[in-house]
Amino acid sequence: MNMKCIHRYEGRFTFFILLISSLCCLLPLALASSDEVEDETTFAYTEGSGRGPKEWGQLDPHWKLCDTGKLQSPIDLLGGKRRVLPSLGKLKTNYKPAPAVVKNRGHDIMVRWKGDAGDLSINGTDYKLLQCHWHSPSEHTFNGTRYQLELHLVHLNAREELAVIAIIYKYGRPDPFLTSLLPHIKKMGDEEKTFGIVNPGDIKFDSRKYFRYIGSLTVPPCTEGVVWTVINELRTVSRDQVKALRDAVHDGFEENVRPTQSWDGKTVLFYTPRVNSGSS
Q: Which residues are catalytic, by number?
């Protein structure tokens, strides 16, 4: 099934500036920590376990936003109010190879760059690439459809605000980036392993169309103020690759997906290149 692009809306540039400004004003109210919680023994994804997503907000006083927050992620990207804004512009990334480590955090597999791996630019602000990790199946949904895998590229700016690029995968041909990592992932325990130079540019995605909204981390502490960019293109991953990621994590985290959250008045922006109709 292909993602369906939402209907066109010719948003004016002035509206875009006002909307982005109002969204960004939310960020200082709840600065996003650069790290998700790494001790997975205190939470779970299984409802009814007493530590599942519905209980996250009660498990730790620092996690109350998981229960009370109004900007929580993930969401169904086609399930609420959207604005199509060609003026958002093509996604601007400047990635470069850098030393990295691979770590099994128990609830997921993470690649963390130790050197300068480049950045992402949003509205004139640069966000340094920190790490990437995988969720299986996908956390964001499209009209209720959940795909097989979702990769999160996590970035941090000078004000310690987070921006995440999410890439969605369906079953098909193996993903080249995962192909290079899997021999190491299959052999690792809970320790962190040096991987050498890793080029984030090998994570291929098409930036011509994407969704953007202000949301949260999808694991405790569920910090809000995260700028989400979800690529509107399905990449492919093999069944063996998804199985390897699931086999590597601890029991109970094979499906490390938070349920979709309420829109709660969120506005999701959608970028698609402006079609030149030839009219003045």
A: 107
